[in-house]
Amino acid sequence: MHMITPGTLIRTITRMIMAMRTITAIITTTITIMTMMEVTGITTTAIPMLMTTNRAGPPAVPVAMTESETAALYRLMTWLSPSFPVGGFSYSSGIEWAVEAGDINDAASLRDWLAAMLTEGSGFCDGVFLAHAHRAVTDDDDRALRDVAELAAAFVPSRERQLETTAQGRAFIEIARAAWDCDGLAYAVSHCNGAIVYPVAVGIVSAAHTIPLSPTMFAFLHALVSNWISAGSRLIPLGQTDSQRVLAALEPVVAATAGRAIAASLDDLGAATFRADTASMRHETQYTRLFRS
Question: Is-contact 99 92, C-beta < 8 A?
Answer without folding.
Answer: no
